[in-house]
Amino acid sequence: MPRRILSLVLPRFASSHALRRSPVAGAFALTASLRGADRLVCLNPEAEARGLGRGMALADARALCPDLLTRPADPLTEAQALAALRRWALRYCPWVACDGPDGLVFDITGSAHLAGGEDALLADLGARLARMGFEARAAIAETRGAAWAVARYGQGGVVPEGGVSRALMPLPLAALRLEEATLEGLERLGLRIIRDLTQVPRASLTRRFGTGPMLRLDQALGQVAEPVAPEPEAPVLAVRLSLPEPIGLRGDIEAGLARLLERLCEHLRQAELGARRLLLELSRVDGQDIRLEIGLARAMRNPAPMAQLFARALDGMDAGFGIERMRLSAVATEALPVEQITTTGAQAQDDLADLLTRLCNRIGFENVQRYLPADSHIPEKSYSIAAAAYSSPARDWPAAPPRPLVIFPPEPIVASGRALPRRFRWRGLWWQVVAATGPERISPEWWLDDPAWRSGLRDYWCVQTDRGARLWLFHTPQRDGWCVQGEFA
Hints:
Blueprint: E1 5-9, H1 13-21, E2 28-34, E3 37-43, H2 45-49, H3 58-64, E4 69-72, H4 75-88, E5 96-98, E6 103-107, H5 118-132, E7 137-141, H6 144-153, E8 157-158, H7 164-168, H8 180-188, H9 194-198, H10 202-209, H11 212-221, E9 238-247, H12 250-270, E10 273-284, E11 289-300, H13 303-315, E12 323-335, H14 346-363, E13 369-373, E14 383-387, E15 406-412, E16 423-426, E17 429-442, E18 458-465, E19 470-475, E20 482-487
Parallel strand pairs: 2-4, 7-8
Antiparallel strand pairs: 1-6, 1-7, 2-3, 5-6, 9-12, 10-11, 10-12, 13-14, 15-20, 16-17, 17-18, 18-19, 19-20
C-alpha cells in the first residue's frame, strides 16, 4: 500500500487562537520584537485587507491603520494550543505530528477510508476547523515534502498516486523548505522553480550549496524516506478509584490511598520520575470535594513514606455522608533515574530530605530555610537564604576568617581615639576589653552603591570582653568612632 501523507497549514493560527480566547472586532494583529523594532507577526483578514502584512513595523502599521488592535505574541501558549489541536486530530489517524508553528502532518496510510475517502476526509477536516475559527489549507500526497509544498504553495487538495512530480515542478523553490540564504543563492543563479533545479547537474549544486537542496528534492519526490514521527505522549501521572459504596472510616480511606499510591508509584517508576508534590482529591456523596496536598523535599516514588505524610492531612478531614471517588495525582515531578545502591552517604542525604519533608508539611515549605554561600566579601552579603526543600546544601564554604554567629546593623559605641579602645560603653553597659585579634581590613564593593558602606573601608577586630561576650568591632579610618556589628558564639 503506497503511503499517503496529509499536510495541514493554519496560516493565521496565532491570531485566530488569540481571538478565540478574547474576540475583538476590526483589524487585529499580534506583535513581537524583531530586528530592533516591534513588528507584526500574525494578522487577521481585516488587517490584511487594510494593506498590512507580516514583518511590517508596528509604527508603520498604525500610520496606515490607526484603529489597529494589537497584542503581544505568546509563542509558548501558541505551542500548547497547537499540541492540543494535534491531540484532537488523532480522530483521523494514529500518526499526527506538529509541523512548524502553524501546521500539522498526518500519516493517513490505511485510514482515509474510515472517513469516506481522501476527499471526504479533507472536507470534514476543513469544516471542523472552520467551525473552530481557524482558516486551513491541506493537501494529500505520497510524500511529506510534496504534501507540505502543495498545501503551502499550491492549490491544496489531493495529489493522485504517481502525480507528485507533475504537482511539484511548477512550484517555487521555497516549497522545498530550503533556508533563506540558500534560496537567495539559487535565485541569483536564475533558478526560481523546482523544475529549474532538475535541469542543473547535481554535483555542481552540491559543491556550492551543500546537500540540502538535493536532499529536500529527493524527499519530496519520494526517493529518500521522510517518516512522520509524532512526539511521544507525556505519561499520565494520575490514578483514580471509584468505590461501589461510600466510605467514611479513616482506615478505609487509608486503604484506598495505599492502593492509589501503589499504582501511581508504578507509573512514576516506568517514566523514571519522582514526585515532588501530590494531590489527593476526595469526592463526597453530597457533591463537595476535599483536596489534600503534600510536598516532598526530594523526588520520591516509595509508597510507604508517602502514605505516612498523608496521615496528618487526614486528621481533620470531614468525610460527610461518605467518599465515593478518590483521585491521586503527581502535580510536580522530577527526573529520578534508577541508581546503583551504594554506601557513599546517599542514605544520609535521603534521611535528611525525609526529615525536611515532615517539617515542611507541618510548618510550611517557605519556613524551613538553609544558608548558602554568596559571592561577596562583605560580611552581611556573604550568604543567602533559600528554602531547604528546593535547594541543595553547599558542599564547601569558601575559606574566610571567622565570622560572628549573629551579624546585625552597626551600632555605635562610646569610645575615643583611633586605637582599639580598652573600655567602651555599648547598650547602656561598660565593657572591658580583655583580649583582641585583628585588624581585618574590608573594602566596600565600589561597583555597587551600598548606603551602609558609603563611609569607606573598615578595620574589624574580634574582642573578648570581661563579661564573657566576644564582639565584632570595626573602625572606619575615614571617620572617627567605633561600632559593634556582631557577636561570636
